[in-house]
Design goal:
Length: 407
C-alpha cells in the first residue's frame, strides 16, 4: 500500500521566507506514530522540531538511528527564518541539534567526492550522502518505508516537496532494510567521527569498510560508494533503470526535477543520457512530454551543461519545458501510469561512478590527493506501478505547472 503527500509554499513566494515543509513534517510524524524501530538517512539534519520528536521516541524506548553528514557540509550564511527574530544559518541550527543527540543513535557518513580539484574547508566539503529516506518497523511485523524530496531543514528556502510512504511492500522493505544495515556499518558514531578527524584531519581520507554487491532490485534501489548491482557501479545502474523507464513509455512522460542537465555523462563515452532518452522518445514516438525544473541554465552558477541539455531539448514538437524559480524541489518522473520517485537531481553528478579514483583536494594552500577512492553520490529511488498514485503526483505537478514560465 502506498500513500503520497505533497507541499507547495503559500503565496507570496518571498525569497527571504525560509521554511521546513511544515505539513510534510506533520505527516511524517503521524506516519511514524507507534513505531518500534526507526532508521533515517538525511542529507541535512538541523530541524530542532524533528529532532525533538526523535529524541522523545528514543527516550520512550524506541531505538532510533539517524545518519547524516558532518557539520562541514552546512552553510554558515545567515538568512531570515520564519519564527526567529534574528537571522540564522543552517550551520547554527545543526550545531544545536548535533550537540544534544539524547538517546538517539546519531551517526555521520563523512564520505566526500569530487570530480576535479576541490577546496576542503568547513562549510564547503562535498559530502556524498544526499538520500532523504526512512525505514520504520511496527508491532505485528508491519513496516513503512519513506522517500522524500524534502530536507526538513531550517534556513532552507521554501520549496515544493513530496513524500512517498510504502506500507508492507515486501520487496521495498527488503531494499530499505539492506540499505540501512549497510549504511549503518559504513557510518561513524559522533564520538568515533571526532577521533577520526583527530587522526586524519580531513574527511577526504574516509574509506568504505563494507562493500556490497546486490542482485538487481525490483521496485526500490539505492546508489552509494559502497553499493554495486551485479558488479556494476550503483549510479550507472540507476541511470540505466531511469532511461529504460523512459524508453518504454507509450502514452505520456512528466519530469519534475530541481535540475535537468544529464546530457553529457562524466567519464563515459557512448552512454545514453536522460536528456538524450527524452529526445529520442519525443522524436521516435511523438509522445507528449512535459519537463518542469526550478532553474534555467542562466540561473545556475555552472550552467554550461544545463544550457546544453536545455538547448538539446528545445524545439521538439511534443516536448515543453517550463521552470518555476525558486520553488520546484520535487524529484519524480511519471511514465504512463507509473512513477519513479527519487532523491537525486537529474544531473550528471548523481549518476557518475568511478570505483578506483584518485581524488584531488586543496586545503590550507596545499594540494593533496587520496588514491583508490570512489566517486559516487548516495540517493534513493523507487518505482510505483499504481495509477492512483501516478494521478496524485500528476495533480501535484499540474499545480506547479500552471505557475511556471516557459523556458
Amino acid at each position: 500500500m502506498y500513500n503520497a503527500y505533497f507541499e507547495v509554499p503559500r503565496a507570496p513566494y518571498a525569497k527571504d521566507s525560509r521554511g521546513s515543509s511544515p505539513s510534510l513534517l506533520r505527516n511524517l510524524m503521524n506516519e511514524l506514530a507507534g513505531a518500534e524501530r526507526v532508521w533515517a538517512s538525511f542529507f541535512l539534519y538541523n530541524n530542532p522540531h524533528l529532532h525533538a520528536f526523535f529524541k522523545q521516541l528514543a527516550a520512550s524506548g524506541t531505538p532510533v538511528t539517524i545518519i547524516t553528514i558532518p557539520l562541514g557540509g552546512y552553510s554558515s550564511c545567515p538568512t531570515k527564518v520564519q519564527g526567529y527574530r534574528s537571522e540564522r544559518s543552517k550551520l547554527d541550527f545543526a550545531q544545536t541539534v548535533y550537540s544534544d543527540p539524547g538517546k538517539v543513535d546519531f551517526r555521520l557518513f563523512p564520505h566526500t567526492y569530487v570530480w576535479k580539484l576541490n577546496q576542503v574547508k568547513r562549510g564547503n566539503d562535498v559530502y556524498s550522502l544526499h538520500a532523504k529516506c526512512l525505514y520504520a518497523q511496527f508491532p505485528g511485523g508491519k513496516s513503512k518505508c519513506f522517500l522524500t524530496s524534502s530536507n526538513f531543514a531550517l534556513a532552507d528556502p521554501s520549496h515544493s516537496e513530496n513524500m512517498l510512504v510504502a506500507t508492507d511492500e515486501p520487496d521495498v522493505t527488503e531494499a530499505y532494510s539492506k540499505y540501512f544495515d549497510s549504511l549503518t556499518l559504513n557510518s561513524l558514531r559522533l564520538e568515533d567521527y571526532e577521533q577520526f578527524i583527530i587522526d586524519n584531519k580531513f574527511d577526504a581520507y574516509y574509506r568504505m569498510s563494507r562493500v556490497v554487491d546486490w542482485l538487481e532490485p525490483q521496485h526500490a534501489w539505492f546508489t552509494g560508494p559502497w553499493i554495486r548491482y551485479g558488479g556494476a557501479g550503483s549510479n550507472h545502474f540507476a541511470r540505466k533503470r531511469i532511461i529504460n523507464f523512459i524508453l518504454q513509455s507509450q502514452k505520456r512522460i512528466i519530469v519534475c526535477a530541481q535540475h535537468l542537465n544529464d546530457y553529457s555523462p562524466f567519464g563515459n563515452t557512448g552512454v545514453l543520457s536522460i536528456a538524450e532518452a527524452l529526445r529520442m522518445v519525443a522524436l521516435e514516438k511523438g509522445i507528449p512530454i512535459r519537463v518542469l525544473t526550478q532553474t534555467t541554465a542562466a540561473q545556475q552558477e555552472l550552467g554550461r551543461r544545463a544550457k546544453e541539455a536545455q538547448t538539446f531539448l528545445d524545439g521538439l514538437q511534443t516536448l515543453e519545458q517550463r521552470y518555476w524559480h525558486p520553488i520546484v524541489h520535487d524529484k519524480f518522473l511519471i511514465v504512463d501510469d507509473a512513477v519513479i520517485v527519487l532523491t537525486a537531481n537529474l544531473t550528471s553528478t548523481p549518476f557518475a561512478w568511478d570505483g578506483d579514483r584518485e581524488m584531488h583536494y586543496e586545503a590550507d594552500g596545499l594540494v593533496f590527493s587520496v588514491p583508490n577512492q570512489v566517486f559516487s553520490e548516495v540517493n534513493a529511488f523507487q518505482v510505483v506501478n499504481d495509477a492512483q498514485i501516478a494521478e496524485q503526483y500528476e495533480q501535484h505537478f499540474d499545480t506547479l505547472w500552471v505557475n511556471a514560465k516557459s523556458v
